[in-house]
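Q: Could you predict the 3D structure of Phosphatidate cytidylyltransferase?
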Amino acid sequence: MSSKKGRGVVFPQRTKSRQNSTDGHRPSFSDAGEEVSSANQALENIKEQEQPKASEQTISDYEKKKANFVTRTLWTFVMIGGFFFALFMGHIYIIFIITAVQIISFKEVIAIANVPSKARDLRFTKALNWYFLGSTMYFLYGESIIYYFRHIIFFDRALQVMATHHRFISFTIHVFGFVFFVGTLKKDHLKFQFSQFAWTHMALFLINVQAHFIMNNVFEGMIWFFLPAALVITNDIFAYICGITFGRTQLIKLSPKKTVEGFVGAWVMTVLFGIFLTNILMRSKYFICPASNLGATVFSGADCEPSSVFVPRVYSTPNFWFLPPGYGISLKIAPMQIHTFFWATFASLIAPFGGFFASGLKRTFKIKDFGDSIPGHGGVTDRMDCQFIMGMFAYLYYQAFIATHKTSLGEVVSGAISLTAQDQLYLIRQMVKYLADQGVFTSDQYSAVSKIFEAAESAL
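A: Sure. Here are the predicted structure tokens for Phosphatidate cytidylyltransferase:
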């Protein structure tokens, strides 16, 4: 059986060739060149259409960056202006800012670990978070107020009862929250509920407990609050300047833009600026005096005996054997400026790791910022990540190496109140006798007061 091969088979390329050639012959090289040129023309048309889109995208990105820069700059000046306004208006304003920072930072940190779908099923989860925040702040604020203002609190009967039993009251409030948490546990959500409980208490420690020490710094004197905060801000600025100027070596992978050169350069500049700033601040009694009058402002000033740490003294080098006889170097400087060197070192070499910790936390949850509380800057936590650990360090350093531990008036008053009525009368009589010996009372006044106390003692 024989058949003609290829009958009825149509090859596309041949059909296309016949369509392109009117005489049925294979197209020439010139025809092929025309096809190529037409294809190139089509590609050029497509590119011309895409170029305006790319150009529009570039302009749009530029406008976004410009708008973000303007917003960021504007809010930077707003924050600086608001901070210095509060600083100059007195301790109450600063405490209000610290309180607001605690609450907002706690809200931001809690939010990143929240799972909305599960939180809807567990309606008391958020309420418990805020309950534990309130109980913690009640305890910490009470501790500060009782310690620094006991000479006022213990003269009021109602406040005296609350102050005496403050820690037990705080513990009871916290225990109620703990019992309620255990009572609301659900079998299908145990892992989520316990992770939220642990996350909440971690946030309370890292934010509120450290902020408690910052508030104590305010009561000790405005310089102990302002100087650490200024050192952290200064270090951040100089780290950026030194980094973009001669930074080459990456410091840590969590923050790729941080460089070793910027890290070290910022340390040197922060030390120099810190010593200069300390020299200015310790001349103002508003900054160096403890907060005995919460109504004081930078304009009304404050009055106190400056601590010896603010009084300049002469430091001389010893007579080394390799130096000429009687030759030495003397330097007149306040001890506080020496302490500032260690503060600036901590602010430059240790405090930035608070920021690195926050960066790692954000990378864990794949977020850019903790929130959007401050337009152009992100959340409050993004600006305060280094300040918390620096404020805690400043308080502990002050208590360990600077503070002079003397018996305060508040301690004397609270101790006297705890005595029996008979012992209190005896104490007052002895104080009156001492004042009479010092010439504060005349002999007639002392005799009159003694008779009053004798009558009171006989009535007991």
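Q: Anything worth pointing out?
A: Confidence is low (pLDDT under 50) at residues 1-25.
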